[in-house]
Amino acid sequence: MSIPLSPSAGQPSMKDYSCTTQCTWCDGCGDYGIWTALKRSLVELKLMPWQVLLCYDVGCHGNMSDKLQGYRFHGLHGRVIPFAAGAKLANPRVPVIAVGGDGASFSEGVGHLVHAVRSNYPMTFILHNNANYGLTLGQASALTWQGQKMNTSPNGIPEHTLPSMDFIFSLEPTFVARAFSGNIPQLTKVLKAAIEHQPHGFAFVDVLQACPTYNKFVTHEYLLEHCKEVPADHDVTDFTKARALATDTGKSIATGILYQNKSIPSFYDRLVPRQGKSTTTVDEVKITDVSSLMERFR
Fold it and tell me: How much is the pLDDT for 9?
């Protein structure tokens, strides 16, 4: 099912998503850029706040849930993906966007992430990647670099850093993109493409961002210098080249739409009982009298 763009609802503006709740992120936090780009992408897609579901995990990024208007859900740590997937399967007509941090998504919730990509749920996932647990004061995450002193790891992490992009590509995704929170125009473009991909399946967007308070190794200045947009002639359908481009971060970090495959059916489209149905499961919900069934338990 396609995403419902509704001109009859009027042209949305940034003011439609504005909220009186003040932002409390640290000065220079990348969340400001992602917050802005997400609102811009929804406005440019002509989606009103009541036409989209935004699902947030626990973390600094999750404090965005009350910083913009719309239908929003703030879930448990590492558990936002299964909720968002269930909401999308219940009503595929609604664009669903899940947001999580690198700590929750690649540690507590890594199993959910694995099966979301594997199942190709028709939803968008935005990873706030600042390589640490910012909300709980700078603990190392699975994506923290080797040899970096963190608050609970003064000698660096004893485990090896999880190669996140190689990990995602090993699951055979249908959409992978990477962006930098300081490049709002490009991030807006990437998020629009990721939302529009939903009829085709799971869209994974890795957003690199600075954590000025706790991450002293991936600074805003570092990302400005190293993030480079993919060439204009990059073939997003070439899986092998996209994977190589995503994982080769030695001299520069490729940003933009890295890979997209629209030929693989989404999880919903593979559900045999839903084939041929014009309704959604939420349309089919009704009140049923179960009093006769309860009699047997008296």
Answer: 59
- Strands in 71-74's sheet, in edge-to-edge order, are 71-74, 53-56, 96-101, 124-129, 203-208, 175-180, 253-260, 227-229
Q: Is residue 230 in a domain?
A: yes
Instruction: Decide if 6 is inside a domain.
Output: no
User: Using an 8 Å Cβ cutoff, are 169 and 114 in contact?
Assistant: no
The separation between the first and the last C-alpha atoms of the chain, rounded to the nearest angstrom, is: 45
Q: What is the rounded distance in angstroms from the CA atom of residue 257 to the CA atom of residue 232?
A: 11
Q: What is the pTM of this model?
A: 0.93
- Number of structural domains, the chain? 1
Residue span of the structural domain in which 134 resides: 26-297
* CATH number of the domain where residue 276 is located: 3.40.50.970
* pLDDT tens digits along 264-297: 999 999 999 999 999 999 999 888 899 998 988 8
Question: Is the pLDDT reported for residue 237 higher than 70?
Answer: yes
Task: Give dist(CA 87, CA 268) in Å, integer.
Answer: 12
